[in-house]
Amino acid sequence: MTEATFNKSERLFYIMHHLSNHDTVTANDLADHCQTTKRTIYRDIQFLQTQGHEIQAQGREGYRLLIPNMQVKSKLTKDEWLSLTLYPLLSTGITSKEHPFHRSYRTGLEKVMRMATGETPNPAIAERIRLHARTEDAVQARIMPALIQAMSENLCVDVRYYAMHRSEWSERRLEPYYLVPREGHLYLVAYCRMRQGIRVFRLNRFEEAKVTDVGFAIPKAFSIDTFLKQRWSIMEEEDPFEIVVRFSPEAAKYVDEEEFYVETKKFNEEDGTLTLKVTVGSRQEFLRWVRSFGPDAEVLSPVSLRRELADEYSRMFRMYQGDEEKLW
């Protein structure tokens, strides 16, 4: 499960934005978020310091921005700043001329590239790098500006959202904390004032979003990394439980190279198989992944899950019995 990496301009924006909204942040955390190395983060911090940003090392706590002002933001229009914070992880199709923020993205990128490198970017490069495999989502492009504005100004947002598991629409007031990409989709981690708790919302299920003038603050005790740590799927609603799966030698080489969001233990056996032990909070999402390996994956425990899969595969076997085609 790989994520798009940031280029230098995008990393600089992300680092300044993150420092402006957190007391401290470590190089490890920044490297994870930007999908790069700590050495690259060190160079980025040094570059920002040479540009006049007062970033101070705080030992094990990481870095602190002493004067949290976004000098880069002041050189951009509001639309340019929003467009650059959306791209590349948050907006589908922004490199297309049909995207409502395409022009702002292009002019903003030119300004940032001049700041970072002193050079004007090649106008064709953005068209040649396709970071999203999915087609453009018109709803997402329409909803995103409101969410980004609400997040950047720490304002609540009133939304209309479709809950898939209940098959119903609802109006809610959310405190938008984080936007998280997972498996080709974007999710909003937010405090829901209607449900009185932190919930996860898939972006393409919003029908509308309106920024309010009601402020909020992310609790200092809340950690997005801790929140996501035990989530195989971001949309998890169950209590965590342990699953052990054995993969055939053919599948083992692919599983062994996977980078998982949750903590896992891998055991490479002498016969070439691989045993994976993982604690997850979403059985159905995990099983969808296991099923993709077919007979090359066997659930060893818990027994209840083995029985469930045995029953499912028995029904599937009966479904495909016989040599006759089925009419439709």
Number of E strands: 11
Could you say how many structural domains there are in total? 3
Name of the top-level CATH class of the largest domain: Mainly Alpha
The string of secondary-structure elements, in order, is HHHEEHHHHHEEEEEHEHEEHEH
Question: How far do the termini sit from each other?
Answer: 36 Å
Backbone shape = globular
Rg value? 23 Å
Q: Kindly identify the CATH topology of the largest domain.
A: Arc Repressor Mutant, subunit A
* Percentage of residues in helical conformation: 25-40%
Question: Mean pLDDT, nearest integer?
Answer: 78
- Helices and strands: which structural class? alpha+beta
Sheet having the most strands: 5 strands, antiparallel
The CATH superfamily of the largest domain turns out to be Winged helix-like DNA-binding domain superfamily/Winged helix DNA-binding domain
The poorly predicted ranges are: 69-74, 129-135
GO molecular function: DNA-binding transcription factor activity
Keywords: Transcription, Transcription regulation
Protein name: HTH deoR-type domain-containing protein
Domain HTH deoR-type: 8-63
